[in-house]
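Researcher: For the record, we're logging two predictions in this thread. I'll number them. Prediction 1 follows.
Model: Prediction 1, sequence and structure:
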Amino acid sequence: MNSVVDRIATAVGWAGSVPPELDWDTVERRLETVLPSDYKQFMSRFRSGVLCDAVRIYNPVQSDEHLANFVEEFDLKLEVARLSREECDLYEVFPEPGGVIPFASDLAGGSLFWLPRTSDPDEWHVVYQSRDSPEDWTTTELSMTAVMLELVTSQGTDNILGWEITERSFVPF
């Protein structure tokens, strides 16, 4: 049986992989948090790029440059979440215990976060903050790769973004 990451790659016609220049210990020390294993598996297959003309992902182990881009985006998304927290008191923001941790963004300025409700990153699920309504969060019980699979296989607007996804592709940058 194919892994979820293989199913995502097949859905978008991606046959590539990533020869990482950095290791996960370096990335996790820089971010000051551990990361889920399914995310690491996804990043071993996908370079930094855009998935389905909807989600921008920086691969932090791809190179020093991509880690710098990831950290810049990470810090920006944390700041936006902190500002929206002042408006609606929904989620704590990393590095607060249980605070949301960003990992990707949509092309309209929204953000995808992990919600670390437990100390085991493999039990974290995904929440989404729309740029249009920063006080409106979409919560799932899904892992990062399950959310990406849902995104690349969704029909109509049945996905975390609520967007109709018509472009089934992955474009690296």
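Researcher: Logged. Prediction 2.
Model: Prediction 2, sequence and structure:
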Amino acid sequence: MKKILNLIEKYKKNSNDVDILHDLRVACRSKLSILNYNAKDDLGLKLLIKKSNKIRDYDVLIEKCEDLEILKYLHKHREKEVVKFIEFLDGFESKIVNIENNKYLVSKKKCLKRLKKIFLSMSDKELHKMRIFIKRCRYVFSESKKEEKLVNFLKKIQKLLGEARDYYNCIKLMKKFGLNTTKEENKKLELIKKANEIRIEFFKNNG
């Protein structure tokens, strides 16, 4: 928790640093995954992630989208969200609670079984849920040195599906502005294909 509190203070001093917010969210998700695995939850950390979702989305879209009108729109809305998020951080509190009937429990068997699914046949919504599940598995198995190969595999898949999701959000925004999204849609598909190839190769080499 000390690392998270330090990152909160850093972000309050430099809210334009996208890397600090990214590190803060990763630290929160990592902490939550370990808590969830042990049938606990932190309502404060979950709220922090929720409150920062829009800012992170804006940060990613600013990086992905090139249209000047869209960039102006994104920066304007990001500034408003940052003000609200800083106010939340000023009163942030961790609140750990127990989880009954632990729905977050992750096993290696469950993880590998779900990853048998072909990414290319999944909808954007299904891929988003898959990425969240992969992220949870990765954080939990990162605690074990025996699972280094699995963790590295999950990390690659998570990154590719995360980038595909970024393009999905960019495409949605571009369509609102009436822009052509062919290039972005092709990039998204390439990332999903690459993730699926890595998935196939992993199971081919690991039974």
